[in-house]
């Protein structure tokens, strides 16, 4: 006997000429009515919800709806196994439908066998990221270095291998969220998902905890490792060491380690963004008549020409002589800030020389302050 094509319109309670909006409204009403969270333990409601979801999966998709109306492809009579209505061919398994439509049901949290089984395969979880600090000298920060760290962390429990359950037992499906890891407030498509309060979002509970780790699946330890600090880090830089955080649970990938650098001050150099700054003292004669002075660099020293009449605070730059830029993008600059130093006390000869110099300098530079105010009033 030929199989009968399922009447998806009848399942949703709409006519064959129903609009997309009418189909959506019908689905929402029925989804609220038969949602498993409001019909716990009702196998018939569960099947109806599955049928409604599968019907909507077809009728809400224009191409699938046209194929269904034509009776072609998987929607042809006899296409479903046994000739009856098989919702799985339209929208996947029941847990998949829940996952796609209501945000629940990751495959990692479902039962490992049929619906009657209580054991559950715990979902894998990525390990936590860790953060630690390292103290560096200014030179180590500029040049880069390798340093040893001792980082408090967690490792997979060697007794239960991370499951958290006593050897010979296994976690069970959470009775509150039924393995999905989420609870929902409200109904149907208007519900709000939140982590399950019973299992914390894992989808499973541990009834007989591992005696070694007390059900956590991990043990605290100190991880000792050597890490490379790249050249050019600054005080407060965060260096990411991939995969060196806490171990993942149940086969999950490990987290990352972030190393925050604390860089000591240099008596000579100051790190100012991409540049390094140095204060260079000048005598009064050097500033007035110009000079060639030797200045420190990060790798030795160089000579700079100081122009005659250089003022206090003047900056001169050496391109590409500064600290390496993070990411290997070349080097920054060194800025030399000239600071004119005056003697605190003068000898008799120095005082005489200053007096003679004052006689040769014309005008008072402060006169322009008053001249400018007078001009502004005029």
UniProtKB/TrEMBL annotation:
Subcellular location: Cytoplasm
Region of interest (Disordered), ranges: 105-134
UniProt xrefs under Gene3D superfamilies: DnaJ domain, Heat shock protein DnaJ, cysteine-rich domain, Urease metallochaperone UreE, N-terminal domain
Major localisation: cytoplasm
Keyword Flavoprotein attached: no
Pfam family, one: DnaJ
Zinc finger (CR-type): 144-222
Gly residues: bias regions: 105-116
UniProt keyword list: Chaperone, Cytoplasm, DNA replication, Metal-binding, Oxidoreductase, Repeat, Stress response, Zinc, Zinc-finger
Cofactor(s) named in the record: Zn(2+)
Residue sites binding Zn(2+) 1 per the record: 157, 160, 210, 213
InterPro entries the record matches: DnaJ, DnaJ_C, DnaJ_domain, DnaJ_domain_CS, HSP40/DnaJ_pept-bd, HSP_DnaJ_Cys-rich_dom, HSP_DnaJ_Cys-rich_dom_sf, J_dom_sf
Repeat positions for CXXCXGXG motif: 157-164, 174-181, 196-203, 210-217
Record note on cofactor: Binds 2 Zn(2+) ions per monomer.
Top-level taxonomic group: Bacteria
Keyword Oxidoreductase in record: yes
Subunit annotation: Homodimer.
Family under the similarity heading: Belongs to the DnaJ family.
Domain notes: The J domain is necessary and sufficient to stimulate DnaK ATPase activity. Zinc center 1 plays an important role in the autonomous, DnaK-independent chaperone activity of DnaJ. Zinc center 2 is essential for interaction with DnaK and for DnaJ activity.
Role noted for this protein: Participates actively in the response to hyperosmotic and heat shock by preventing the aggregation of stress-denatured proteins and by disaggregating proteins, also in an autonomous, DnaK-independent fashion. Unfolded proteins bind initially to DnaJ; upon interaction with the DnaJ-bound protein, DnaK hydrolyzes its bound ATP, resulting in the formation of a stable complex. GrpE releases ADP from DnaK; ATP binding to DnaK triggers the release of the substrate protein, thus completing the reaction cycle.
Protein name: Chaperone protein DnaJ
Gene name in the database record: dnaJ
């Amino acid at each position: 006997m030929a199989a009968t094509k399922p009447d998806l319109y009848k399942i949703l309670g709409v006519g064959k000429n129903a609009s997309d909006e009418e189909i959506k409204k019908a689905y929402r009403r029925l989804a609220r009515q038969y949602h498993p969270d409001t019909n716990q333990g009702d196998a018939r409601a569960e099947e109806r919800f599955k049928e409604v979801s599968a019907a909507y999966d077809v009728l809400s998709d224009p191409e699938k709806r046209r194929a269904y109306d034509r009776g072609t492809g998987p929607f042809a009579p006899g296409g479903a196994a046994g000739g009856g209505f098989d919702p799985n061919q339209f929208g996947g398994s029941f847990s998949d439908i829940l996952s796609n439509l209501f945000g629940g049901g990751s495959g990692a949290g479902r039962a490992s066998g049929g619906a009657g089984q209580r054991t559950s395969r715990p979902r894998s979880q990525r390990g936590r990221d860790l953060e630690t600090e390292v103290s560096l000298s200014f030179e180590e920060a500029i040049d880069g270095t390798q340093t040893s760290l001792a980082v408090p962390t967690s490792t997979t429990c060697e007794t239960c291998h991370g499951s958290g359950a006593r050897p010979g037992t296994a976690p069970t499906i959470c009775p509150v969220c039924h393995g999905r890891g989420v609870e929902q407030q409200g109904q149907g498509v208007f519900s709000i998902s939140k982590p399950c309060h019973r299992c914390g979002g894992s989808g499973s509970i541990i009834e007989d905890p591992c005696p070694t780790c007390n059900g956590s699946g991990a043990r605290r330890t100190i991880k000792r490792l050597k890490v490379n600090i790249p050249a050019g880090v600054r005080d407060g830089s965060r260096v990411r060491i991939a995969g060196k955080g806490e171990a993942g649970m149940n086969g999950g990938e490990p987290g990352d380690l972030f190393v925050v650098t604390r860089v000591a001050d240099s008596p000579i150099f100051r790190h100012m963004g991409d540049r390094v700054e140095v204060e260079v003292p000048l005598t009064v004669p050097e500033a007035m008549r110009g000079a060639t002075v030797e200045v420190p660099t990060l790798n030795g020293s160089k000579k700079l020409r100081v122009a005659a009449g250089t003022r206090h605070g003047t900056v001169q730059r050496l391109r590409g002589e500064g600290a390496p830029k993070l990411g290997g993008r070349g080097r920054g600059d060194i800025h030399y800030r000239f600071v004119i130093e005056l003697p605190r006390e003068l000898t008799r000869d120095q005082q005489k020389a200053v007096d003679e110099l004052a006689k040769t300098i014309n005008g008072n530079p402060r006169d322009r302050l008053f001249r400018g105010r007078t001009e502004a009033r005029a």
